Structure formats: C-alpha cells, structure tokens
Task: structure prediction
Amino acid sequence: MFKNELMNLFSLNFSVMKYSIVLAACLVLFAQCRRPDFDVQPTGSFDTLGIKWMTIERSNIIYYFQGTGVNAASIYTDLHEDAYDTLNSVFKAQIPQKLRFFVWTNWEQAEQLLGYSLGFAVPWECVCNVMANQTLGHEMTHVLSFWADGILPTRHTKFINEGVAVAFDLSGRNRIDMAKEAVKGKNIHSVAEVWADNSTADEILYPLGGAFVDFLFKKGQREKFDALLKYQTIEDAEYIYGKEQLDALIAEFNGLVGL
Amino acid sequence: MKHAFIALLVLFSAITTLAQKHNLFADVGTLRGFSATYNYRVAKHFGAGIGVQGYRFSPTELDYYYDRKRFVPGVFADLRLNIRPLKRGQMFSFLDLGIDLYKQDKSYYRDSNYIFTIPHDNGFYIGFGFGYFRRVTKGGGGPYTSLKFVTNWYTSYFYDIVSPANDRIYPSADFGVALSLGYRFGHRQDKFVAAGKQKKEVLQTKKEMKKEEPKPPKQIVKKEKRDRDLGPMPDQKHHLYADVGISHSRFYPGFSATYNYRPVRFIGLGVGIQGYAWYPTMTNPHQFVPGVIGDLRFNVRPGKSSQFFSFLNVGIDFYKHNNTTEPDSNLIYSVSRNNGTYGALGFGYFLRLTRRGGGLYTSVKIMTNFYKTDVYDITTKEQYTETHDRGTLVISYGFKF
Result:
C-alpha cells in the first residue's frame, strides 16, 4: 500500500519535474531574446565643423556623437557618467561649465579638422575630443584634475599631467607592470630623469608617469598630492614632499619598476 | 520561482532515491565542481533524469575578457545512453539540457566603435560527454570516470556607435571541460538481469548448434546478415538528400538539397544547392546566402536500418560585397570582392531507413565562408590583403529519396 502511494507520488513528481524543466528552459530562452531597454535618448543635434552631431545631455556631461548608434551611445553615456562620479569624488572639481565630450567615429576626419590626433582634452574649455574606444577616465581626468578644488595649476609638466590621466584612466590595468615593460631595455636610470625631460617618448613617459602618480596617490598624504597637481615640476615636488622624502619615494619606485 | 524550482528538484531527488530501482550519479572533478544526477532507465540502453551541478568557469565572453572565473550552479534534464549495460565494465554517454544560474553584472567590452554587452542573467546550459565504469557491482553501483563539456549559451549584444544599422544580436556560447570521478548508487533492474541471462542462454544454444552445423561460405553469411537487418538491399547508387534547418546565426531557417552518387558502398560524391541566412563577411549584414556545393559523403553502417553519415562540402557562396568598413584598433578592414569560398563539415543520422533506402534524417553541420579582406593600417599607412572566414552552425531535418 505504502509502496504504491510512494510510486504514485514518484510518477506525479517525475511528470511535474519533466515539464517544469522544459518550461524553465523555455523561459530562459525567451528571457534571452528580450531586448534590453534604454532610458537615454538623444536630446537634439548640433552642427559644427561641417558635422551634424547627435547630442545627449546627461547630469555631468553633454555628449556629441558623430555616429547615430543610439543604443551604443546610451550605454556609452551611462559608463561615462559613472566614471565622472568616481573621478570627481577624488578631484572635487569645480568646473565653470558642463564637460563636453565629442565622440568621433571617423578618426582621420577628426585629425584633418582639428589638426591633432585623437584623443585630447582642452581643459580650460571643458572639452574632450575622443575616440569611442578610449579608456573611460583618461581625457576626463585631464579636465577634472585641471579644475580640482577650483584652483588652476600654476606649473605644468607633461610627466605629471599625463601621469595623472593614466593613473586615473579607470582601465584597471596593473600600472607597475606597464611601466616595467615600457622601461625594459631603455637607457633610463631613474624616474626623475623622465620627469625632468619633457621630450621623452610617449611610449615611456605615459606608462612610467601613470605608475609613478598611482604610486604617490596610494602612499596617502592627500594634501601633498593635491599640491603636486598644481605645482608639477620636480623642484616643486622637492618643496612639497621635502627633498629627503621625495628621494626616498623615487628610490622605492625605481626599485619597483626595475630601474 | 527559481528557489521553488530548486526546492522541488531536491524533494524529487530525495523521493526517487528511496525507490531503489533508480540510479543516482554523483561526481566531483576539475573546474572545482560537482554534479549529481538522478537517472531513470527507460529502456535497456536509454535513461532519462534530472540533476544539479556547479562548476567554476567563465560562463560568458565578458568573463573571458576580464579573466574572471565564477562558480556557476545549474539544474538540468539528463538523457543517457548506456553502452554494454549488462556487462561489468560499462560505458555511457549523456546529453544534459538545463539552466545555468548566474547574475550578469553591468560590465561592457569596448572595441573600436563597438560596445559589447550581455544584459541577461542566467544562460541555457548544454552539457555532453561520456563516462566509463571499470567494474559495476552486482547491485548495479560502482565508481566511474567521466569527461564532460559544460557549455553556457546566452545572447550577446553588439552595439555600434557609428550607426544603429550595424547593431548585432546573436547567440553565443562559452564552455569548460570537466574531468570527474564519481560513484553511481543504484540497482540493476531485475528485468535487465533476467534479459541478460536469457540472452546468454540463447547465445549458448546458438553456439552449440553452430558447432554441429557445417559452416556456410562467408559471402552467404554476410548477405543473410544484411537481409536480416534491412531486408534485401536495393542496388541503389543514386541518392537525393533534401533538408530544412535552422542556422545558429539569429536562428533563421534555410535549406539544402544534394544529389549524391555512391560509387562504392561507403563513399558517395555529389553536387547540391543550399541557402541559409547568416553574416557571410565582417562587413555584410545578416543576409540570405545561396550557394552551390560539391559533396563528399562517408556512410557509416550502410547495410543497417539505422545509419550515420559524415560529409565534407566545398563550393561557392553567392553574395554582393558591402561598401562599409570595419575598424579595429589601428586597422580598417574592407571587403571588395563578391562571393566567397564555401566549406562545410558535418554529420547526420538516420533513425530508420525504409527498404527502398529512403528515410528521415537529422544532421549538424558547421558552414564557413572564406573571403579576401583588404586591410589598411592607419599608423603605418600600409595596405595588404588577408583571408578571413565567417561561420555558423546549422541543425537540419531532412529526407533521403
């Protein structure tokens, strides 16, 4: 008697389960076919440089797209809005107007019209001209660090300026490894050499600068780091950190990257 | 819904384990995972069941890109083919269909003007593999080793900033390979044991009878065996295969028709036409691509009522090239030639052929279009030509005349 009941229960369970699995598999398949929704739509268009730009205005940035791919543009703006919030929590920029992002899809045309290769930022105008596949934070950091705390930089060096942009590009790459790779086999003895020489090749200066700025930032001492953003020469750094401490930091960094 | 489903599954497994006629497979293995499958033996060689599993692998392309591995639990239905089910050393192969349960975070991959994303949680699970019992106990249990391909299927979205016309949606799959050691808890069903004993007795009697009878010539034995399997084999050399199927590229339907001449029993040669919708080149949109093909076909077990075949097709795909370009980092790709070279590999199965040699079949093939691409390097201003290929998977059902 009990055995029969058990077997009936088993048969019922088996058929229920059999159809449940098929149903669940179908649900998953249909769920996969459902297209995701996009909240962000173009807010208008803007004509300049002979190009009609698709514009999307978000809370932090106004985006100008050379292309017309709305779905991709929507995701692109989501990513950059998040990136802006992340970076601005570091730099606390007080910028005079909304950041404007020109997203070029014809890079050759951009070079012909602008006279420079993409991407680059014009911080005092709060403008970034970028390729669609650039890192989230690089050009944005140029503008936000320029306007950090509402104080404009007094002295610039390419090493610190580009180093900050690489250090906060939000790419998640290991910057020490990148720097090691960049200086391998090159006749460089200390990071101080590259810092002092603005004519160093970009292939060395960018990764080495990024790694060094990242190293300094992670050491703490935020007031000193913020001051370095405004006074960027090696002499300024000696004054900000103190010569002894700066020499010790440089020596430690040189050891990390194998100089 | 998901949790109720899993609870129901656990309850079901517990109840069915009490009924001792059934089998429970449990194993642990590489990919730092496990699987537990309840299997009900429907017929001597065939079992069906359900199971749960969890493996650590990269379930999506984004996980590969970010070099992430995740523990992915899953529930599935299980179809199992038992080979030599009455012997002590047994083999089995299996096909699992089910659901991989995971949360998809909001990560993206950006390349050139494209943004690649996988927006949906969970995926469709397909697992297949085979296993081996070195020695099954009298009770029907025993340790086994198995090799399993764990595949996760999901929908990928590829959005282009240049134009929404270039947006693509397509199914994708990623996989892991698990080598496992396990134990089957179960009892051989009495009727199978009895059937085995009966078969053994029949064989013994036949053997004794054979010993007494004079041996007929080898050719007559072969013919008798063939007639027993299929009836008198028609002297048929001309075959026409016609099928309709679904291409894995956005699941559009298509067809193929192949005339095949069989000069020898195991090999056939032929020509055919076909048409499926897919992306023939990197710059062409999703479109219907007709083609003509040359066909080389190998027939497995040609005298039997159930047969296999594998085939190699080479031919031409007909399409017009598209004048758009495909940028990738510092390279710009374009396709300036119409048509491409078609190549396909596949295999098929006839469950039962009629005496005239016709019958329903199912086949799986991988189709590839090989085409020339012009490449322009923006940085070095260098131009050169490369051969690329685009492919898709097709599952079809057809009839052989």
The two ends of chain A are 84 Å apart (CA to CA). The beta strands of chain A are 44-48, 51-57, 61-65, 99-104, 120-122, 127-131. Chain A touches chain B at residues 6-7, 9-10, 13-14, 16-18, 20-22, 24-25, 28-29, 31-36, 65-73, 75-76, 79, 103, 105, 107-108, 132-133 (CB under 8 Å). Chain A has a mean pLDDT of 86.
